[in-house]
Design a protein that fits this description.
single chain; alpha/beta; Undecaprenyl pyrophosphate synthetase; 6-stranded parallel sheet; binds 3-methylbut-3-enyl trihydrogen diphosphate; binds magnesium ion
């Protein structure tokens, strides 16, 4: 069990290792992605049980469009299928589901499912589950820059009033707290263009477990790791202790 205290408010996960999981079983990569859906389901349950308020999952990056066409198309179908199958259960559990990423790059069938799932769960007050599809941290920052530039061009924002706060208002996670803890499965120790702005002060937890094998043990290990960190945000340890 994780310590009941010091639970991160916002957990972000880079769900990596599906392909290798499948390869080890001599299965097609897609079998790994399919199997990964069960880990998503369990992670959502765990987040709810442990008292996490926001869970952001990296499901498909801007760069993942470069994968073989068949893998991409099967992944998109899997998203549609999983949404269809899981939304009612999420709704019953009071989860509010939202998507971040370049929605205009997705096929219309998927966008319809996304919009209806978001509308269906919009009034829920439990866990906020954000799924990043066709998402890239650089894309997010470029989009926010466009928003700010448009405000300046129309005269509603002065150049000297641009600061971190006005800028972040144009990002996908606008209005939400930054992730406190980032988990990456699959053994790589990199960010792979995930939430570049919002991860500025996240604690980073990397594990070798491949995403389809991720479950209670790894989630609780990540929470335990987080609970032991002292977050200083540039201050000294003594300053943080004095502030309680
Ligand atoms: C993560 O697993 C899922 C996506 C990126 C869509 P991978 O498919 O990247 O799995 P590996 O890294 O090849 O094992
Ligand atoms: C990151 O995994 C993206 C997702 C998990 C959706 P990748 O497998 O695409 O990352 P790289 O290519 O190994 O950096
Ligand atoms: Mg990978």
């Amino acid at each position: 069990m994780a310590a009941a205290t010091n639970i991160p408010t916002h957990v972000a996960i880079i769900m990596d290792g599906n392909g290798r999981w499948a390869r080890r079983r001599s299965l097609p990569r897609h079998a790994g992605h399919r199997s990964g859906v069960a880990s998503v389901r369990r992670s959502v349950e765990l987040a709810v049980e442990r008292g996490v308020e926001y869970l952001t999952l990296f499901a498909f990056s801007s760069e993942n469009w470069s994968r073989p066409r068949e893998e991409v198309s099967k992944l998109m179908s899997l998203f549609v299928e999983a949404l269809q199958r899981e939304v009612d259960e999420l709704h019953r559990n009071n989860v509010r589901l939202e998507f971040i990423g370049a929605r205009d790059q997705l096929q219309s069938g998927l966008v319809e499912k996304i919009e209806s799932a978001e509308a269906h769960t919009a009034a829920n007050t439990g866990l906020r589950l954000l799924v990043a599809v066709a998402y890239g941290g650089r894309w997010d920052i470029v989009e926010a820059s466009r928003t700010v530039a448009a405000q300046v061009a129309e005269g509603s924002l002065a150049v000297e009033d641009i600061d971190a706060e006005t800028f972040a208002a144009g990002l996908q996670l606008s209005g939400l707290p930054d992730p406190d803890l980032l988990i990456r499965t699959g053994g790589e120790r990199r960010i792979s263009n995930f939430l570049l702005w919002n991860l500025a002060y996240a604690e980073l937890f990397f594990c070798d477990t491949l995403w389809p094998d991720f479950g209670d043990e790894e989630f609780d290990a990540a929470l335990a790791y987080f609970a032991k960190r002292q977050r200083r945000y540039g201050h000294t340890g003594e300053q943080m202790e004095a502030a309680g």
